[in-house]
Amino acid sequence: MSTETPTTPTPPAVDPRLLVRKEGVAGYLDEFGRKLRSGELGSLPVVVGLIIIAAIFQWKTGSFLNADNLTNITKWIAGPGLIATGVVFVLLLGEIDLSLGSVAGVTAALSSVLAVRQGVNEWLAVLIGILAAIAMGAVHGFFFSKIGVPALLVTLAGMLAWSGLQDFTIGKLGTVNNLNDGVIANLDTYFMGDGDIVWAWLAAILAIALFAAGQLIDARRRAAAGLPARPIAEIALRTGVLAVVVLVVAYMLNQDRGLPLPLVLFVGIVAIGDFVLRRTGYGRQIFAVGGGIEAARRAGINVAWVRTSVYMISAGLAGFGGLFIASQQGSADKSLGGGNVLMSAIAAAVIGGTSLFGGRGKLWSALLGILVLQSITTGLDMVHAQQAIQYMITGAVLLAAVVLDSISRRTQKSSGRG
Predict the structure, then answer these.
(1) Which of 55, 318, 326, 330 is most buried, by CB atoms within 10 Å?
(2) What is the DSSP letter of 403?
(3) Which residue ranges in the chain fall short of pLDDT 50?
(4) Has residue 415 been placed in a domain?
(5) Which residues have a Cβ under 8 Å from the Cβ of 364 and sit 6 or more positions away?
(6) pTM (2 d.p.)
(7) Domain count within the chain
(8) The domain that contains 380 carries what CATH number?
(9) CA angle at 183 for the pair 179 and 188, rounded to the nearest 5°
(10) Any stretches that span the bilayer, and where are they (predicted)?
(11) Does 251 map to a domain?
């Protein structure tokens, strides 16, 4: 008769990336420390920066946090923010698009000329303008993905060509004023329910409910698949933090004119794009191509189509952003999309946390980044700073974001997570 004692089988090794962190305050502190050590800072630097910016300008002006000023900021971010959203898509591939400012200008010029000078229905004119922008993106994507021309050169050529087309479309008069109370004009001036405060509260409640539902569904799916999932307590905490933020925003908007249409459309597009990137196979393909072209190709991904489609999306968003800029300035002209529009969009994406090296970032980066830039611009305008000072400060903030991105990437590589 055997007297051998049965041995307990050795548990299989667990991938440390799948470890479930401890619950409670200690768990949050542990996870926060781990992220700092591995360079995963997320949106923390941007949020801290926004708080500091708001505190400084409120101290200097005494009116920066007034409801009317905050409402104006939420309106002004829509145009450049949509262009920055398109930039995020391109940066996720590890590429760049220098043509987006010109694409925005052409879209506004074409839509305005068709509606004002040619008498085309304004809705149809806007649709034609945006479709034209998407076609421009398809041209860039074709030469980049099919012919093999570097994206920098393709989009540089596009920037020059579309700028010339914008000039030609506008014609000798140089400016096309928006139709009074028309589609383009209302993009910037319309408030939901003509200023009825109930719309801001409804939007806030809807945002909280959708976020909570998304978190719960995600946790349930991960648990069903045997993967670590967020506990209910953490979901409740995250939802509570979001609820405080959006309810405060709704309250401040209602102290002025209510919920602005530009904010609704901008946040809605960012939310839809974020869902596509994080919840669909197409979004995962974008991240895969940005993380490594050859690996993506061997995984069966149509790299050429992903690249082309991303440039189409970015151009379409830039075109829509151009319409908002035309609405804000009251007209489409030859300079729309020029100046620092493109650089601000790229800066917003990078400042918000999207990596210049591809494969890492979120669409919410565009929202956070453009909030930082617009807050700086608005604050400096309120203290009557020279435009040269604005450029220098914006450049310094962009450099800081790029340095932080580089250091984060190096830290992640050294910790085996890059």
Answers:
(1) 318
(2) H
(3) 1-2, 11-20, 24
(4) no
(5) 43, 270, 274, 352
(6) 0.88
(7) 1
(8) 1.10.3470
(9) 95
(10) 41-61, 73-93, 100-117, 123-144, 197-214, 235-253, 259-277, 304-326, 338-357, 364-383, 389-407
(11) no
